[in-house]
Amino acid sequence: MGIELTAIGGYNEVGRQSTAIKIDDDVFIVDLGLHLDQYIKYTEDEEEDITTTSRRGLRKAGAIPDWTSIKDWKKDVKGIILTHAHLDHIGAVPYLAELFDCPVYGSPFTIALLKQLIDDKTMKFENELIPVTKPIQLTEGVKLELIHMTHSTVDCKMVVLHNKHGAVVVDNDFKLDRHPTLGKPPDFAAIERLSGKVVAHVGECLYAPHPSKTPSESVARKMLEEVLLEEDFEGRTVFVSTFSSHIARLSSIIDMGKAMGRKVVFLGRSMAKYLAAAEEANILKLPKHVEVLKYGSQIRKFFKQQKDLSKYLIVCTGHMGEPKAALAKLADGGYPFKFKPDDVVVFSSNVIPMPLIIANRDELVRKLKGQHVRIFDGVHVSGHASKEDLRWLMTTLAAKHLIPNHGTPEMTEAYIDIAREAGIPPSRIHNLREGDRITLVE
Ligand SMILES: [Zn+2]
Fold first, then answer.
1. DSSP secondary structure string, 367-429?
2. pLDDT digit string (tens) for 51-101?
3. What is the 352 CA–ligand 1 centroid distance (Å)?
């Protein structure tokens, strides 16, 4: 009896997020994500997309969480709860959920996206999928509340497990955006209601080293407007490359296409999947001036048939230089398309500082420059809370136990420093590694 927590994945590392929480006799798993770097190396698949492959192979490659750290809890798992629709949080669900005889809970968009991922695979999937829109009793002693948060995809939630010992909160991923461009700001009132009632707070660390406050998505929209609406791109082919999961950004690009008098064309499977999930969850309705080309054959046909590409605003993946993604194929002549001098590529993204990504990205930029393409880089703001936002959340929740998560050792240390500065005693901060188990309430 009491509360225990097992750090399954994403502790002192970024990727394959997963945390198991045992409350009395019931176990809940929050997130089952992919380690994208390992996943891409193992499958050679493009960014933000998954296809069929074996569970064993993925586990060996370190691409999915090592669930064996909760082998002894397996039969007691009563629910898998998802925070948001990024693959480092939900990408392993199609491979691992069948091990547990329980439903999968998440926001309507997260569940819609998960369905898209499952439809893509040949493995059987029998767990019930439950979209959650209001607090729900999971077991006799545990009630789930999903608190609305903002991040770089939509319909993101802070997971709260209410029980007789006090609430357990998993916050990742989030930022505190009071001026989002799509959807509502975080539910600050619900967060404040939890103050002082939280027994454990699992907190994301990714941007803990940034001594600032993360700007709103409305700032990124303004940055995009300055490029797309204030520069003269008359007669040029214009590409924007961004994250297919970033529905708010895609929505801004759709609006700007209209303002530019251009038809918006999305390229690739990953874009198609996230847009379909957003439509299914009633978050976005694609207007008439938008076209989605899911398959390579459709993309080739589009470029073959078009005489005047300056009538279009073309949106694609590949901003990290992934060799198989659309932008690299465009640069390599993989489609029946050739850049003309002064055509435009806008990177509405940041570069993740990992050696493989930096090398791929440098190679892509070199090829684009070689074809005299004009590049607008870094038209982006992050979806992760910086130091001051993290400080606000940890001091507002004022949990008895604070558990850093979703960061490298350096990011985790920065998070712990924030907690120390905020006066949280070291005895209440628990720096866990993958596979560690801790008792929070006896
Ligand atoms: Zn995320």
1. HHHHTT-EEE------SS-BHHHHHHHHHHH--SEEEEESS-HHHHHHHHHHHHHTT--GGGB
2. 556 777 888 888 899 999 999 999 999 999 999 999 999 999 999 999 999
3. 13
**Is the predicted pLDDT of residue 45 greater than 60, yes or no?**
no
If you measure from the C-alpha of residue 40 to the centroid of ligand 1, how many angstroms do you get, rounded to a whole number? 17
| Cβ burial, residue 154 (10 Å; 0-12/13-18/19+) | buried
Q: How far is the CA of 84 from the centre of ligand 1 (A)?
A: 7
Residue 414 Cα to ligand 1 midpoint, Å, equals 19
The pLDDT value given to residue 290: 97
Which residue shows structure tokens 């989002």? 180
* Alpha-carbon gap, residue 249 to 216, rounded angstroms: 12
Domain residues of the chain, as ranges? 3-213+383-441, 217-376
Cα of 394 vs centre of ligand 1, distance in Å, is 19
Tell me the pTM.
0.94
Distance 415 CA to ligand 1 centre (A): 17
| The CATH number of the domain covering residues in 217-376 | 3.40.50.10710
pLDDT value of residue 119: 83
Report the mean per-residue pLDDT for the chain: 94
From ligand 1's centre to the CA of 90, what distance in Å?
A: 10
Query: Strand pairing partners for 439?
Result: 4
350: which 2 tokens?
């940041």
Alpha helices in 287-386 (DSSP H): 296-305, 326-332, 355-370
Half-sphere exposure of residue 34, counting CA atoms within 13 Å on the CB side? 28
- Whole-number Å distance, alpha carbon 151 to ligand 1 midpoint, is 7
- Note the CATH number of domain 3-213+383-441: 3.60.15.10
Mean pLDDT to the nearest integer, 142-156: 98
Q: Cα of 106 to ligand 1 centre, how many Å?
A: 14
Q: How far is the CA of 341 from the centre of ligand 1 (A)?
A: 36
Spatial separation of the C-alpha atoms in residues 301 and 303, rounded to whole Å: 6
Q: Quick check: 149 and 110 in contact, CB under 8 A?
A: no
C-alpha 170 – ligand 1 centre gap (Å) = 13
Q: Is the peptide bond before 76 cis (omega within 30 degrees of 0)?
A: no
Ligand 1: centre distance to CA 87 (Å): 8
CA of 369 to the centre of ligand 1 (A): 31
Ligand 1 centroid – CA 301 distance (Å): 34
